[in-house]
Structure formats: C-alpha cells, structure tokens
Amino acid sequence: MTKLDKRTERLTRALRNAGVRITRQRAALLHVIAQADDHPEAVELHRRAEIDVPGISLSTVYRTLTALEAQGVIHRHQFEGAPARFEHAATEHHDHMIDVDTGDVIEFRSDRIERMQAEIAAEMGYEIVHHRLELYVQKKKADGA
C-alpha cells in the first residue's frame, strides 16, 4: 500500500468514525487532502477537488475539514493574517516559518530549539505539554541592494 493509499484510508476511516457518509465528492476531496504535502487553504483544496468532481460545494469542503480535524487526522493552522491552512496530523513534530512576502510555509525541526524550550519551561517549574512555533520570515536582501 502506497503512502497516498494509507493517507486516503486513514482519512476515510476518520470520517466514517465521525458518522459522515463518504459521497463521491468527499472521496475526491479525501484523495486531494491525502496528496497534499503543502499547507493548502480550504479554497485551494476546493479548487483541486473540483478538477475531479466539478460542482463540489465549498461548504462540503469546510464540513469535511472540520470533521477530520475533530477526529485528529488533520491540523488546522491559523497563521497571522491569513486564512486557515491544513496539514496531515500523522507527520513528525515540526515548526513553521511563514514567508511574509510569498505566504509560503516552510517546515523545519531543530533539536536545539526543542531543548531550549524544555529547559526554559523546566527553569520556570513547568513541563511542556504542547507547543507551536511560528516564525514569520523574509528573504534577506543582498548587501548593497
């Protein structure tokens, strides 16, 4: 079974567990979500799904995303000043950099940052249960520009 097949199966199972019927439109949307390795907005997912199933409603996309989020199989990210974006929950922990000029979302992982966060929390008498780090970035301009 391919990675895409596994993702699609996981998403389908989550919707069924939520009591949501798998229609042709939802099946197409689940396939689109399973293929996504970026952080698409609902409108972008709708656009992609509509290629396979013309006429899929945006409200179906939103309801499906809400059900998948409630089942814990996707994460919703609300980056500053932008519509919500979505990604698979089955990925390893990572943080995000958001390019303020292009809107691109870059995933990264830093063991050094993870250690520092844990150390800071411990020094203050806490233990981290969950965290999210977002860095809003801009490409450095060349010197003299």
TrEMBL record:
An annotated GO BP: regulation of secondary metabolite biosynthetic process
Main location, first listed in the record: cytoplasm
Domain of life: Bacteria
CC terms in the record's Gene Ontology section: cytosol
Keyword Translocase: no
Binding site for Fe cation: H93, D95, E114, H131
CC cofactor note: Binds 1 Mn(2+) or Fe(2+) ion per subunit.
Entry's localization field: Cytoplasm
UniProt GO molecular function: DNA-binding transcription factor activity; transcription cis-regulatory region binding; zinc ion binding
Cofactor(s) for this UniProt protein: Mn(2+); Fe(2+)
Entry-linked Pfam families: FUR
Keywords, ordered alphabetically: Cytoplasm, DNA-binding, Iron, Metal-binding, Repressor, Transcription, Transcription regulation, Zinc
CDD domains per the UniProt record, alphabetical: Fur_like
Nucleotide-binding listed as a keyword: no
Known partners and oligomeric status: Homodimer.
Family in the record: Belongs to the Fur family.
Protein name: Ferric uptake regulation protein
Species for this entry: Hartmannibacter diazotrophicus
Gene encoding the protein: fur
